[in-house]
């Protein structure tokens, strides 16, 4: 019986050790499952943030593209609004041609309209280019022909066929000129 008791004790110890090993494995597998669940949760959260950020960026890109197109289309709106009164003045001048027999009042009216147009464009940054009797400059002038001239006129602008213009100190139209050779 003593052997039986010792055998039972040994079996009980083995059972206890097996139970402890199983309990340890369960704890390890539970910790592994918790860590994996946490990582999956963090991954899902990161994906959600990424998708939201990407969607927000796409909306921003579309909105700015739309605003840019609108800005380009309406860029000249202010200038056009300021030129409409000048057009009205020209229409009144055309009507006055029908009933007027004297030329002087018409010349005066056209000069007033022209000055009004020049002031409006100058306020927007348009400046006429002065070219006559200056040195020929390829950056400002377009030579349409050369004319034989004296030594003092060689390389200088003799005549201006079409006036050049600056817009905010940038050449927007080159002056077409005749150059002395």
From TrEMBL:
A GO cellular component annotation in the UniProt record: cytoplasm
Location in or out of the cell: Cytoplasm
Keyword Chaperone among record annotations: yes
Stretch list, region Disordered: 1-40
GO BP terms: protein folding
The keyword Cytoplasm belongs to this UniProt entry's keyword annotation: yes
SUPFAM superfamilies, alphabetized: Coiled-coil domain of nucleotide exchange factor GrpE, Head domain of nucleotide exchange factor GrpE
Key words, A-Z: Chaperone, Cytoplasm, Stress response
GO terms of molecular function: adenyl-nucleotide exchange factor activity; protein homodimerization activity; protein-folding chaperone binding; unfolded protein binding
Subunit structure: Homodimer.
Role of this protein: Participates actively in the response to hyperosmotic and heat shock by preventing the aggregation of stress-denatured proteins, in association with DnaK and GrpE. It is the nucleotide exchange factor for DnaK and may function as a thermosensor. Unfolded proteins bind initially to DnaJ; upon interaction with the DnaJ-bound protein, DnaK hydrolyzes its bound ATP, resulting in the formation of a stable complex. GrpE releases ADP from DnaK; ATP binding to DnaK triggers the release of the substrate protein, thus completing the reaction cycle.
Family the entry assigns: Belongs to the GrpE family.
Name of the molecule in the record: Protein GrpE
The organism of origin for this protein: Emticicia agri
Lineage: Bacteria, Pseudomonadati, Bacteroidota, Cytophagia, Cytophagales
